[in-house]
């Protein structure tokens, strides 16, 4: 199992520690959708008792990442077409809004942050590492922050994290070199539209980017049993 990224802040309670560790294992794919959560061994690995772990699992259930029942084993929530569609619909509306606002409101510091994130993008293969996924999160988060709408940026950050499981699922079908090059070109064009203050272009580019995203591919696979 992979470890959470280094430099994580300290935890005020054992429940917070368990929540962070298990959440990372789920979102990284180390605990795949539908898998049983072995509470005794998980607690031992983390170095806590099962009581704070159970509290953490309740929090993860509220986030839709865990199915938890008093009379059954806890499990990682399976991927779900309805959730994939919900996430895609929200991102289809909110990501273009953030990109358009970023083009209007970005500062030089914002542009430097987006440029640095663009330079650090790592192409995603069929089994992406946490670092590869984080490089794409960093780029999009830089655009969200450049919108200077804190609530919008916070909302999109939460949507991004919840979509990571679906990104991994979308990548399982493979990706051609042409597709990877097209995504890289879209990222460059997004940066240029934000840099140049072209709000309409930035919003349109981001909308197409979301509509052809890995989350959209995952939804297509979930809607077609033969393509899963």
From TrEMBL:
It comes from the Bacteria. InterPro entries: GntR_C, TF_FadR/GntR_C, Tscrpt_reg_HTH_GntR, WH-like_DNA-bd_sf, WH_DNA-bd_sf. Residues 12-79 form the HTH gntR-type domain. Keywords: DNA-binding, Transcription, Transcription regulation. GO terms for molecular function: DNA binding; DNA-binding transcription factor activity. PANTHER family: GLUCONATE OPERON TRANSCRIPTIONAL REPRESSOR, TRANSCRIPTIONAL REGULATOR, GNTR FAMILY. This is Transcriptional regulator, GntR family. It comes from Blastococcus haudaquaticus.
């Amino acid at each position: 199992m992979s470890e959470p990224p280094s430099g994580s802040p300290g935890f005020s309670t054992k429940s917070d520690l368990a929540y962070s560790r298990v959440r990372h294992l789920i979102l990284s794919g180390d605990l795949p959708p539908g898998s049983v959560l072995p509470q005794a061994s998980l607690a031992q690995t983390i170095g806590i008792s099962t009581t704070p772990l159970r509290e953490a699992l309740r929090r993860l259930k509220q986030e839709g990442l865990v199915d938890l029942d008093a009379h059954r084993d806890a499990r990682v929530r399976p991927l779900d077409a309805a959730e994939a569609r919900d996430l895609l619909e929200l991102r289809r509306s909110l990501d273009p809004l953030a990109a358009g606002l970023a083009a209007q409101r970005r500062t030089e510091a914002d542009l430097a942050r987006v440029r640095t994130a663009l330079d650090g993008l790592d192409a995603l293969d069929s089994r992406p590492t946490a670092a590869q996924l984080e490089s794409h999160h960093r780029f999009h988060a830089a655009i969200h922050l450049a919108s200077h709408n804190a609530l919008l940026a916070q909302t999109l950050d939460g949507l991004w994290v919840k979509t990571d499981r679906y990104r991994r699922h979308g990548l399982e079908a493979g990706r051609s070199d042409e597709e990877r090059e097209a995504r890289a070109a879209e990222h460059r064009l997004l940066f240029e539209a934000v840099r140049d203050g072209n709000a309409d272009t930035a919003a349109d580019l981001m909308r197409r980017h979301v509509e052809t995203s890995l989350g959209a591919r995952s939804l297509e696979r979930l809607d077609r049993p033969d393509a899963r």
